[in-house]
Amino acid sequence: MGCFHSKKNKVPPGYEDPSILASETTFSVSEVEALYELFKKISSSVVNDGLIHKEEFQLALFKNRKRENLFADRVFDLFDLKQNGVIDFSEFVRSLSVFHPNAPLEDKIVFAFRLYDLRQTGYIEREEVKQMVVALLSESDMKLSDEVIESILDKTFVEADTKHDGRIDLDEWKSLVLRHPSLMKNMTLPYLKDITTTFPSFIFHSELDDGSA
Amino acid sequence: SKPVTMNAFELISLSSGLNLSSLFET
């Protein structure tokens, strides 16, 4: 069965004790164990090596492993904390923790800023925003002329770039987000609140271990 | 055509690549 040679639990690379992960994230131990069920599903969808490869991430997001998407790439890169091209379980839990409804808003704001700072310069530049708008348009049915895109950028920067240097720094980003809370909508996943009921199989295992069934 | 009243980030946030809830619909 599978690739395990013995009945002893062989842990994949990057697996960390759920109690440690729980102590360092927004999740409880049960929630971390439930996330492991989800992680196993995603990380075995293409290559069964206990790690999430970009193809597997795309497959889980879009149900299509070949779909290129600038934003999915950025999310993958940010989840890949060790920057080694794959997401291990501890990276998965630590990164998803930011998306928990109880995670601090500050963490969500910083994560979104890093996501949109495509070139990682510490600023969201106008050119980056344009690149992202064009990428969004190309994945949707919306068609906007270059003139309209430029006017959207003008309007956005008049509002966001309060220091008038043509780019948005973290402080400016925070003020913009506080004025437009809807920009943080993607940064909270209500699913994470009831993850133990979505992926309950670990509870079943725990009950068996307790001998209480 | 109607004027677009969204700011750039509101538009960007519509991307399916940013909708991680689909990770849970496996």
UniProtKB/TrEMBL annotation, chain A:
GO terms for MF: calcium ion binding; kinase binding
SUPFAM superfamilies linked: EF-hand (SSF47473)
> Would the keyword Membrane turn up in this protein's UniProt record?
no
Tell me the domain of life. Answer: Eukaryota
Q: Please state the span of the N-terminal signal peptide per the UniProt entry.
A: none
Q: What name does UniProt use for this protein?
A: Calcineurin B-like protein 01
Q: Which UniProt keywords apply?
A: Repeat
Organism of derivation: Physcomitrium patens (Spreading-leaved earth moss)
The EF-hand domain sits at 67-102, 104-139, 148-183
User: Mind giving the lineage of the organism this protein is from?
Assistant: Eukaryota, Viridiplantae, Streptophyta, Embryophyta, Bryophyta
Which example biological process does GO assign this protein? calcium-mediated signaling
Cited Pfam families: EF-hand_5 (PF13202), EF-hand_7 (PF13499)
Entry annotated with the keyword Zinc-finger: no
Q: Provide the family line.
A: Belongs to the calcineurin regulatory subunit family.
